[in-house]
Specification:
This protein is about 30% helix and about 20% strand. By secondary structure, it is an alpha/beta fold. The chain has two domains: about 160 residues, Lyase, Ornithine Decarboxylase, Chain A, domain 1, CATH 2.40.37.10; about 250 residues, TIM Barrel, CATH 3.20.20.10. Keywords: Decarboxylase, Lyase, Pyridoxal phosphate.
């Protein structure tokens, strides 16, 4: 691939073979590496785009994308108003630990247990429920001051089918024709403040799609307000803001996107006519995906019916390609623009044929011991890592001001079994 065709903000790191080899020697491989400068640049760009279009807004970072407390603290320090989109008790816990204000948290679960709902009502200002039955379980615990429900508008969009989270096949949200009953029940119980949320899919790169989605949300909001006689306190467009994983994709123009969304929003809620709801979003990958890469070493090269490049990172380290068949750029460290003399599948050491980080990828010639970098793994990289085949999870490293430091140590075999209770011992 010619240098002019390579597009990635972290390319200077990958091109520096000396620095990458030093990282590999110091922290081992595979290792997740994050660039603090890129992370904060993404966050600032997003906040600036929103502030130009909305007077009242809230960014709630989708903690499911990445919960490393060092990275969350870095973002919170840069943007003190940062909120959190939580979808599990663990995400509520880490929001507490890094000091994200309770009133800036939205909790969106689905098929929650009573115990989970109890924790959610104690730990998040904005409870966003996926079904009327969730509210019924919640109301047996306590009736909240504010509630929102997740709308399923009957359509959704995502970069591939598995990440479409609205529409007739989605497990999420309440259909338009049923959602009024949920609000009516909450209103009858004495709830005074309401929000509405919709998350329709992940990885979208078409700004017009978000306008279409927001219009559907706002039409439903106005219908509900008119029918039930209340005004919404907040309206959330959710997440789903995509990043260009592939070279032929263009990034979202955030100024253009939120300019369009602001115009659409204020056509429904004009500040000249009185108070307007807060506009909320719950982004993940648009903030952190391209701020991280996975540094891994070639462990073997196999010529079979096709070529295989074996790595010390597999589907246990980075699950997205095996789970979703996603494409991620992979570069040869030190020579990202070297001629492509090889076509191969990149695989790890997991005992599964789905263990592929790339399939039929054109790539420069490599040898055992070479380093390669898998890009755009800051979101849903480490957070989906697992211990399958009894392999410890990798380390995480943050680069700040030209220096690296460990922000999560590599797991050990002892860590994997530290919570088991058994009768054996090394000494018999």
């Amino acid at each position: 691939m010619a240098t002019s065709e390579i597009k990635h903000p972290l390319l200077p790191f990958v091109a520096d073979d000396g620095a990458m080899e030093e990282l590999a020697q110091q922290y081992g491989t595979p290792v997740y590496v994050y660039d603090g400068e890129q992370l904060l640049s993404n966050l600032t760009h997003l906040d600036n785009a929103l502030s130009s279009a909305f007077s009242l807004y809230q960014i709630c970072f989708a903690l499911k994308a990445n919960t490393n407390p060092h990275l969350l603290s870095l973002m919170k320090e840069s943007l003190p108003t940062l909120g959190a989109d939580c979808s599990s008790p663990g995400e509520l816990y880490i929001a507490d630990e890094v000091g994200i204000d309770r009133e800036r948290r939205i909790y969106t679960g689905n098929y929650e247990s009573t115990e989970e709902l109890k924790l959610a009502i104690e730990s998040a200002e904005h409870l966003n429920l996926d079904d009327i039955t969730s509210y019924e379980r919640l109301s047996r615990i306590a009736v909240p001051k504010q509630i929102s429900f997740r709308l399923n508008p009957g359509f959704g969009s995502g970069s591939f089918p598995e990440v479409v989270t609205a529409g007739k096949e989605a497990k999420f949200g309440i259909p338009e024709e049923k959602i009024v009953n949920a609000y009516r029940l909450a209103q009858k119980d004495g709830v005074k403040s309401f929000g509405i949320q919709c998350m329709s899919g992940s990885g979208n790169l078409d700004s017009d799609y978000f306008v279409h989605l927001l219009t559907a949300i706002l039409e439903n909001a106005r219908r509900l307000e008119k029918k039930l006689g209340f005004s919404f306190s907040f309206i959330s467009l959710g997440g789903g803001y995509g990043v260009p994983y592939e070279n032929d994709q263009e990034p979202l123009d955030l100024d253009d996107l939120f300019g369009k969304l602001g115009k659409t929003f204020h056509e429904f809620y004009n500040p000249a006519n009185g108070p307007v709801p807060k506009f909320m979003i719950e982004p993940g990958k648009i903030i952190i995906a391209d701020a991280g890469f996975l540094l891994t070493r070639v462990t073997g090269i196999k010529e079979s019916y096709k070529n295989f490049v074996g790595l010390d990172a597999g589907m246990n380290t980075f699950l997205r390609p095996a789970l979703y068949k996603t494409y991620h750029k992979i570069f040869k460290v030190g020579e990202p623009d070297a001629p492509e003399g090889l076509v191969a599948d990149f695989t790890g050491g997991i005992c599964e044929n789905t263990d592929r980080l790339a399939t039929d990828r054109s790539f420069p010639e490599v040898e055992e011991g070479d380093l390669v970098a898998v890009m755009d793994v800051g979101a849903y990289g480490f957070s989906m890592a697992n211990q399958y085949n009894t392999r410890p999870k990798p380390a995480e490293v943050l680069i700040e001001n030209g220096k690296s430091h460990l922000i999560r140590r590599r797991e050990t075999m002892e860590d994997i079994f530290s919570h088991t209770d058994w009768n054996g011992s090394k000494n018999g």
